[in-house]
Every structure is written in structure tokens, then in C-alpha cells.
Write a structure and sequence with these properties.
Strand content of chain C: 25-35%
Largest sheet of chain C: 6 strands, mixed
Radius of gyration of chain A: 20 Å
Structural class of chain A: mainly alpha
Number of strands of chain C: 14
Strand content of chain A: under 5%
Order of helices and strands of chain A: HHEEHHHHHH
Number of helices of chain C: 10
Largest interface: A-B, 38 and 26 residues
Low-confidence stretches of chain A: none
CATH architecture of the largest domain in chain C: 3-Layer(aba) Sandwich
Radius of gyration of chain C: 23 Å
Helix content of chain C: 25-40%
Number of domains of chain A: 1
Number of domains of chain C: 2
Order of helices and strands of chain C: EEEHEEEHHHEHEHEEHEHEEHEH
Shape of chain A: globular
Strand order of the largest sheet of chain A: 1-2
CATH topology of the largest domain in chain C: Rossmann fold
Distance between the termini of chain C: 29 Å
CATH class of the largest domain in chain C: Alpha Beta
Number of strands of chain A: 2
Oligomer: heterotrimer
Low-confidence stretches of chain C: none
Strand order of the largest sheet of chain C: 6-7-8-3-9-10
Mean pLDDT of chain A: 85
Largest sheet of chain A: 2 strands, antiparallel
Number of helices of chain A: 8
Distance between the termini of chain A: 32 Å
Structural class of chain C: alpha/beta
CATH superfamily of the largest domain in chain C: P-loop containing nucleotide triphosphate hydrolases
Mean pLDDT of chain C: 87
Chain lengths: 247, 279, 305
């Protein structure tokens, strides 16, 4: 008898969470999430000191608008896709490259549980680092008196961040399960194709995940759909694919 | 019937002089990589821009003698800037595993138990990556210059732009040096080539984004020095005699590059060892 | 039969790993023997569902193993590769893998402790695997294979990297498991250790099975190949005169005070040798050995055929 998918997923999640939390590469995660906080502090101090001001297209903008720009440019266009690529591609591919996947494959668990458990661990870790970072940036950049008014949209932005992390993570998890060297292709997609496609006219932008990183119903549904389909595809791949470990 | 001794015989052939072990490592690394079709495809794609520029030069010298197509220092400067994208991907593809794979396979002990020094090993690995980067920066740029001379039928372009050859060479060397040393240092930090690739992408892309945001927020151009790419851009603008896009003094930019290379050298010195002690 | 393979083949691109192997492995300990590239690891990976057959079938406990994870309740696999979650302690790692068998935390911890004790690692169980020696790493790998008390153990080069004392202990463990009714498939290059574990062997070469069965039966099948006997005697020449009178001696030679005899009928020859030794007619006999009556000789002969 096989352990149920749910129970197996929980065990893999616990194992993977421990791996991710103590891995050296989590330093990368912390750096990626910490940099916007540093930027926010520097910007706020500079603005408060009156030594400089922020201009975009020749217009002076206040710190709230800077926060909005940071969310869309830094978090949504860079940090979320970067974390999705870096971690998503490594979830299965690292186990294969390190040849430790044999130990997971020789347990009475559905192989799909490995995909789900690792994905959940990634999502928990990434969310636990990125959301507090965004919250700190919000608190630093937005004047205290304006926080209440902006709280609603900020919470929606946090939701988009989580969905973005989930969607990118799932897509690149699938890529990592399917291809031997998914990272270069992932970087090409995120920092090549997506950066260009979102500014092209017509429907080209809709072929990117970045297009759906918005707080509206259609985008939320699309991101959820992409996440579910990519996870299902990754589970299919890992169930049927054989992994020949290099000797 | 004479019976020949089948036992061990000492090598009696010639030996190369010491200090050329790096060449053996480089040759082996290059040969291993060249056998991969995917990598060859990437290298071919890296030459596409050369074809586009070659056509531009041809049109500019023979068909339409218009200023838009005419070659200038900006043409070669722009070409080398555009090749930075391929430098990035080739560095990740060919460079991430250079030392990381050896660390994972515990091969450093094997290498360093031979009569080669750690510097031979590092030089060999550097040369492996540098060879590929050389072939997508300096080689196509100089070929473009040669084509310009061929299409125009005279050496006038080269004589009227005397800084072009040294500018192309030094720019290519800087690009290759910074990319190779950074990638090698990062590769030596881990047993996972994927992690090394991630670190390099962080250094190459993230630092630029952060520097840009800080510059916009504070108005101080110095934040651009966070990014090796932006720092290199200051130097290449100066080498090609173009007006600088930022206020960073060339000397400061040069200092930044030297500091980065020094840091990479220190990392390599500390990390390339035969034995890792795990506490 | 515990493991049955029918016309099993596996190829990696153009390279054949296993070539039309039909094999049935019975209960008990079976040694898989062959040089590098013979196909032993490929067979073990097929038998443990790590690889999918390119052709043919492989069944474990009469059920297919590929895509059938429930089988892993009964199968424990100790792979050849030296790969671990280096940041984890031995105890945590084995317990985590035990947990994947459905054990609750306390039961998994208990099972992990028992497995680690069996392989002699309990005193270093709380040290990180990254700090283990090669022998310890090999043992912790063994521990994860036995933690869930499987019915079939598949051990790929389990003795590699172990010191002599630990090798002996592991061989003894294998025998204990067999005595408790478990089945073990073990591969090794160290021939006398395979012989110490079992007399049932499968010899492989170039992806094919060369021979299988009891090592002595295999030897008996090769009766066309003369059996060599080496006898150290006080008076080797006198001994030779006494022994060479019968037809069962094909040839002989001297190496100092050692008489090397080739016989096509070893049973008859040994019987006469015993009589001569007992009578004392040809002086004292100090040592009798047969370099052929071991796996190496059997294998070398079969592979050259």
C-alpha cells in the first residue's frame, strides 16, 4: 500500500522545508528580499533630509509613489520572477544532480508528492521572506497617516506577490523536472523574452506571466490556473520520466 | 622467441617544461564543452549579431553611403555592448560548473596531487571560459573591423580612428576578465553549478537594478558602481571616446573593477584547496 | 522467485546497459558479480524501479516495480552513489526517510536508532553526514535501506570504503538477514567477500548473464576446463611419480617445491591424493590448494569463453 498523497506531501514538505531553511542558497533569498528594504531606507532618509528628490519623467514624486514604483518594478518585475526561476528550477533538478532523488524514489510514496511537497516548502520560504520585506518597505516609504488609506491596495499587492511566486515557481518547477539544464532557459525567458514581450503591442504581452501580475480578477484566475496546470504537468513528468543519474 | 617484458616501464619520452599545466586543463575543458551541441548552438546564436552588423557595414560602404549605415566608433562600441547579453549566458553555461563540478566530484584533490600548482589550475579554468568569451567579443569585433576595411577598399577608416583597435581589445579584455574572474570565484564557493549560476545572475542583474533605483532615488551617480556592468560601461565609453552616460570619474570606475578582480582573486586563493575541512 | 526478469534490456542511447537478460533470483542471498560496465548497477536500478526497461519485464514479488511505489514497503535499496543531504545528521536523515514509509515521528526515530545501531553508527548519529568518513557514509546508506525492515534488500557495492572490521560486520549482518528469512541481492567486486556471503551468484559481463547458480555447480559445468591443484610437499618429485600413474591427471609442472597438477576429474584425484597423504609413501604433504576453486577463476574462465 502506498502512503496517501496528502500524507506523503506533508512528509516531503517537512523534509524540504528543513533543507531550504538551512541551505546556503537561502542567503540569496534573503539578499533578494533585503535589498528593497535597504533601498527604501536610503530613499526615505534622502527624501527626509531634503538632500535629493525623486524624479520620474521630470516630475517630482513623493515617497508613496516611490513605494508603488518599487512594488511594480522591483518586486513584481524582478524579485518574484528571479526567485521563481532560481528556486523553481532547482527543486527537482538539484535532487537529480546531487543524486539524492534515489532515496525519495525508493519510498512508498507517489512521485507526485515530491513535486507538491517541495513546491509548498518553496512557497512557504519565499513568502516568509518576500512578504515581510514588502511590508517593511511599505512602512518605511508610506507616511504613517496615509497607511490606513493604502492598506487595502497593499494587501491586494501582497496577494499578487504570493500568486506570482506560486505561478513562477510552479512553471519553473515543471521546467526543472523536464529539462536537465533549466536555469539558462529560465533566465532567457524571464529576463529576455518577458522583458521585451510586455512592452510589445498586441497580444504578445499576454504570453508572459508578468502581464498577469495585477490585482484584478482575470489576472488572479490566470495565475491560479497557470500554477495548477504547471504543478499537474510537473507531477505527470516526474511520474513517467526516468532520471538517469550521471556516474 | 624473445619474450618482451610486460611489466611497468617508466615513461622515457619528452616532457614539457613546468608551468604549462594550465594549457592542458584549458584544452580539456574546451574540448569537453565543444562536444555539447546545445553549447555550440548558443555560440552560433552569439554570432548572429555579427552577421547583422556585417550586412550593415556592407550596405553602409557599398550600397547606401548614408551616415545612418556608416561605420563609426559607436558601431563597434554598440556591438560590444550588445554582445554582453551573450557574454552573460555563455559565462553561466560554460563557467558555472568549472570549479563547482570539480568540488562536487572531489576532483580538486586529484588535480592538486599532480605536479601542478593551484595557480595552474585556476589559470587553466580561467583560460577555458576566456577562450569562449574571446570568440564572441574580440574575434567578431575585429572581424567587423576587417570587413569594414575590405568593403571600403582602404585603410582610411582605421587610420582615422586610431583608438579603435586598442579600444576593442581593452574593452573585450575587460569584459572577459570581469566575467571570467567573477564566475570562477563564485563557482569556487559551491559544489552546485546551479547555485554558482544563480549567484552570478544576482551579481550581474540584481546589482544593476539596485544601483539604478538608488541612483534615481538619491540622485547620486555613485550608486551605479554597485553593478560591474555599469562600471565597465563607464570605462568602455571612455575607451571609445564617447560622451559618458554617467558622472562617475573613469579613475573611480577603474578602481572599482580592480577591487572586484582583487576580491575574486582572494576568493579563489582561499577556496581552491585540495581538502575541505568540515566541522 | 523474488525477482524475475524476462528478456530484460536497457539501453542508454546507443549504449547497451543490459542485453536480453532472463533471470530469476530466488529467496536468500544472491551475489551479483562482474567487472565495471557489466550491467550489475543497471540491473539493480531496473529491479528497484529507478529505470524503466527498454524491452522486456522485471517483476519483484511477482508485481511490476516501475511506477508501483507500494512495492517499496518491501524493498530497501542501498545505491552505489555517495550522495546525501550533507547538512542533516545521520539520525535525522534516516528518521526522515523512515517517516516517508508512513511511520509516525516517534516510531521513525526508534527505527532510525535501531538501524544505526545495527550498522555501528549510533555513537555518531548526531553528527552531520558532511563530517562522516567514507566508511561511515557507506554505513548510513545501509541504515536507510534497512530502517523499514524490508523483505528484499538490494545492495549495490555495500562494502565499498569500509574498513576490514566493518566489512566483516556487514557480511555478518547480511547473513543474519538471510537467516531471518529476508532476501538480499548484493553486488561487489571483492570476490572472496561475495563468497563469504553466499554461494549463489549471478555472473554478468557486457550486459549479459554469463552464468548463475551455486558457485560449485557452475564450476562443475566447466568440466572441460581442467581443474588445477597446487601441492606443496617435502618431496614433490616423489609425489608426482605416485600421482601420475592414473588417467585423471592431464598435465603437471613443478614450481620449486610445489607440484601443480591439472585434472579433468578432481573428485577422483582428491580421493587418491588423500590415500597417498595418509600412507606417507611420498613423504609429507604440507599444503594443498586449488586456485581454481574460487569465483575469480570461474569468472575469468567464463568471460574468456
Amino acid at each position: 500500500m502506498t502512503t496517501t498523497l496528502l500524507a506523503s506531501t506533508r512528509r516531503i514538505f517537512e523534509l524540504a522545508l528543513g533543507q531550504m531553511l538551512w541551505a546556503r542558497r537561502s542567503v540569496l533569498l534573503a539578499l533578494a528580499a533585503g535589498a528593497p528594504v535597504l533601498l527604501a531606507i536610503v530613499t526615505r532618509l534622502t527624501l527626509a533630509g531634503g538632500t535629493a528628490f525623486v524624479q520620474i519623467n521630470g516630475r517630482r514624486i513623493d515617497s508613496e509613489a516611490v513605494f508603488g514604483s518599487a512594488m511594480s518594478l522591483l518586486y513584481l518585475r524582478f524579485i518574484v520572477p528571479a526567485i521563481g526561476v532560481f528556486y523553481g528550477t532547482s527543486l527537482i533538478a538539484d535532487e537529480v544532480e546531487d543524486k539524492t532523488i534515489t532515496y525519495l524514489f525508493t519510498r512508498p510514496i507517489p512521485r507526485g508528492a515530491i513535486v507538491l511537497g517541495k513546491f509548498l516548502a518553496y512557497l512557504v520560504c519565499a513568502t516568509a521572506v518576500v512578504l515581510p520585506s514588502a511590508a517593511v518597505v511599505f512602512m518605511v516609504m508610506v507616511p504613517f497617516g496615509n497607511m490606513a488609506a493604502l492598506l487595502g491596495s497593499f494587501v491586494r499587492d501582497l496577494g499578487v506577490l504570493v500568486l506570482g511566486l506560486a505561478a513562477y515557481g510552479a512553471v519553473f518547477l515543471w521546467a526543472g523536472a523536464l529539462f536537465r539544464r533549466p536555469l539558462v532557459g529560465g533566465l532567457l525567458f524571464v529576463f529576455g523574452f518577458e522583458q521585451v514581450a510586455v512592452i510589445l503591442p498586441g497580444y504578445v504581452g499576454r504570453l508572459t506571466l508578468a502581464h498577469y501580475l495585477q490585482a484584478n480578477t482575470t489576472s488572479v484566475v490566470c495565475l491560479l490556473l497557470v500554477t495548477i496546470v504547471a504543478l499537474w504537468a510537473a507531477m505527470l513528468v516526474i511520474e513517467h520520466r526516468e532520471y538517469v543519474l550521471e556516474r | 622467441m624473445p619474450i618482451h617484458d610486460q611489466g611497468y616501464r617508466r615513461y622515457a619520452g619528452g616532457r614539457t617544461s613546468r608551468g604549462r599545466a594550465w594549457l592542458v586543463i584549458a584544452r580539456a575543458g574546451i574540448a569537453a564543452r565543444v562536444r555539447e551541441r546545445r553549447f555550440l548552438a548558443l555560440m552560433l546564436v552569439a554570432w548572429l549579431l555579427f552577421l547583422v552588423r556585417a550586412v550593415q557595414l556592407y550596405v553602409g560602404t557599398t550600397i547606401v553611403r548614408a551616415s545612418f549605415f556608416a561605420a563609426s566608433e559607436e558601431t563597434f562600441h554598440g556591438f560590444l555592448n550588445q554582445q554582453r547579453l551573450f557574454v552573460f549566458f555563455i559565462t553561466i553555461y560554460a563557467g558555472a560548473g568549472l570549479i563547482a563540478n570539480d568540488r562536487q566530484a572531489n576532483a580538486l584533490q586529484l588535480y592538486l596531487s599532480k605536479p601542478i600548482t593551484r595557480h595552474d589550475y585556476i589559470a587553466g579554468k580561467l583560460a577555458t571560459l576566456a577562450a569562449f568569451l574571446f570568440s564572441v567579443t574580440w574575434v567578431p569585433a575585429m572581424l567587423l573591423l576587417a570587413l569594414q576595411v575590405l568593403f571600403s577598399g582602404s585603410l582610411e577608416f582605421v587610420s582615422t580612428h586610431p583608438r579603435l583597435v586598442p579600444a576593442i581589445t581593452i574593452t573585450a579584455l575587460l569584459q572577459i576578465g570581469v566575467a571570467s574572474m567573477t564566475m570562477l570565484a563564485l563557482s569556487s564557493l559551491s559544489r552546485s553549478r546551479r547555485f554558482a549560476a544563480m549567484l552570478y545572475a544576482l551579481v550581474a542583474i540584481f546589482t544593476g537594478a539596485v544601483g539604478g533605483v538608488l541612483q534615481t532615488a538619491t540622485g547620486h551617480a555613485g550608486w551605479m558602481l554597485l553593478s560591474p556592468q555599469n562600471t565597465l560601461a563607464v570605462l568602455t565609453d571612455a575607451l571609445f571616446g564617447l560622451s559618458p552616460e554617467s558622472d562617475i570619474p573613469v579613475a573611480i570606475a577603474l578602481l572599482g573593477i580592480v577591487a572586484l578582480l582583487g576580491l575574486c582573486a582572494i576568493v579563489l586563493e582561499r577556496r581552491v584547496r585540495a581538502v575541505d575541512v568540515v566541522a | 522467485m523474488i525477482v524475475s526478469a524476462e528478456h530484460l534490456s536497457k539501453w542508454y542511447g546507443h549504449v547497451s546497459g543490459l542485453n536480453d537478460v532472463t533471470l530469476s533470483i530466488p529467496a536468500g542471498v544472491t551475489g551479483l558479480l562482474g567487472p565495471n560496465g557489466a550491467g550489475k548497477s543497471t540491473f539493480m536500478q531496473l529491479a528497484t524501479g529507478q529505470l524503466r526497461p527498454s524491452a522486456g519485464t522485471v517483476r519483484v514479488f511477482d508485481e511490476p516495480i516501475w511506477g508501483n511505489p507500494s512495492q517499496y514497503r518491501r524493498v530497501g535499496f542501498c545505491p552505489e552513489q555517495d550522495a546525501f543531504y550533507e547538512h542533516m545528521t545521520g539520525r535525522d536523515w534516516v528518521a526522515a526517510l523512515a517517516g516517508l514509509h508512513g511511520m509516525e515521528a516517534a516510531a521513525a526515530a526508534n527505527a532510525a536508532a535501531q538501524a544505526l545501531e545495527a550498522v555501528g553508527l549510533l555513537d555518531v548519529a548526531d553528527r552531520k553526514i558532511g563530517g562522516y568518513s567514507k566508511g561511515m557514509r557507506q554505513r548510513v546508506k545501509l541504515a536507510q535501506a534497512i530502517v523499514h525492515d524490508p523483505q528484499l534488500l538490494v545492495l549495490d557495492e555495500p562494502l565499498s570504503g569500509m574498513d576490514p572490521l566493518m566489512r566483516r560486520r556487514t557480511i555478518s549482518l547480511v547473513r543474519q538477514w538471510a537467516a531471518r528469512g529476508k532476501s538480499v541481492i548484493v553486488s561487489s567486486h571483492v570476490l572472496h567477500e561475495i563468497e563469504a556471503m553466499t554461494a549463489t551468484v549471478v555472473l554478468m559481463h557486457n550486459g549479459r548473464v554469463v552464468a548463475e547458480g551455486d558457485v560449485h555447480q557452475i564450476r562443475a559445468l566447466i568440466d572441460a576446463h581442467p581443474h588445477r591443484v597446487s601441492i606443496r610437499a617435502a618431496d614433490a618429485r616423489a609425489l608426482a611419480q605416485r600421482l601420475l600413474v592414473d588417467d585423471d591427471v592431464s598435465s603437471f609442472r613443478f614450481e620449486g617445491d610445489v607440484l601443480i597438477v591439472e585434472t579433468a576429474n578432481p573428485d577422483s584425484f582428491y580421493s587418491r591424493l588423500t590415500d597417498v597423504a595418509a600412507s606417507g609413501e611420498a613423504g609429507s604433504i604440507e599444503e594443498v590448494s586449488s586456485p581454481d576453486d574460487n569465483l575469480q577463476a570461474v569468472f575469468s574462465y567464463l568471460v574468456k569463453q
